[in-house]
Amino acid sequence: MEIPGLVDLQVNGFKGVDFSGADVTEADVAGACRALLDEGTTAFLATLITCPEEIYARNLPLIARVMNRDEFEGRLLGIHLEGPFLSRQEGARGVHNPEWMKMPDIDYLERLIGWANGKIRLLTLAAELDGAEALARHATDREVTVSLGHQMADADDLDRLVRAGAKALTHLGNGVPAVLPRHENPIWAGLGNDDLSATIITDGHHLPVSMLKTIIRTKGPLRCIIVSDASPLAGLPPGQYESMGARVVLDKSGRLYNPITGYMVGSSATMRTCVDYLASLNIVREDELTMMAFENPLKLIGIDPTWIRPA
């Protein structure tokens, strides 16, 4: 199978380097980028989860400086902010700390964009929050793509955000409570919205095969995007670790989870692992894998494929 490249819109870190970490350095970020590229990822967005203000003020300019290095042109494509404008509800928030979350705030988003030197490409936002529409319009005007996730949104919420410029759903099927109403829930609402593409974590742990089939067959390959959601622990051996403020377990199967809550805490996979797993299921053709792993992610964030540096 030959794909022109693997573009990952959600990488939280790699081999022990946490892009949201309080002590991360430019050398750490550059080293993680090199290691990830060596593992077959062609280009990606560095992702920061919900952080205290001082971490954003420190890490966003740091990552932007690494991005400006010639060696990462066409490879480190920008920054994905997964937060801080997310649902505080247990389950929906995932590993995000509710104490650091904020209600949609245009002035605060402007500060984030400024700290990042305009390098923010993607913003994950909970659609049901007061002020979400205004924030989505502003982000879109600033050429930041809006994706909806870590939310308890219903169909009407999603429709409103689509009208405000939202384009996608962040890791559909994940970032929700373990128990949901049968019909009125964010997963069904996301599946039923024809205007939103879906990013999906195809690492073999986040979604069962039945759910992958349902998302891909409902949305169609043209509206699906593979992401790894790689944790800072991706690339490390199995064991017990401290990550994102909690004790977590990376087992031999590659599943990465909080043993107390049972919730996943990101992925231990790379894009290559995710694409290989999806290919093994024979759900999509090779040309459809190319759409989902290369063409669609670039289209979502408005990047010309010719700008991507070949691996």
Helix fraction?
Answer: 25-40%
- Measured by DSSP, the beta-strand proportion falls in 15-25%
Q: Strand pairing plus helix content: what structural class?
A: alpha/beta
Query: Tally of extended strands?
Result: 13
**Class, according to the CATH hierarchy?**
Alpha Beta
Number of domains: 1
Query: If you compute it from the alpha carbons, what radius of gyration comes out, rounded to the nearest whole angstrom?
Result: 18 Å
Span of the ends, CA to CA: 16 Å
CATH level-four homologous superfamily name: Metal-dependent hydrolases
Unreliable segments of 5+ consecutive residues: none
CATH topology term: TIM Barrel
Gross morphology is globular
Per CATH, the architecture is: Alpha-Beta Barrel
Question: What is the H-and-E element order?
Answer: EEEHEHEHEHEHEHEHEEEEHH
Mean pLDDT: 96
The number of helical runs is 9
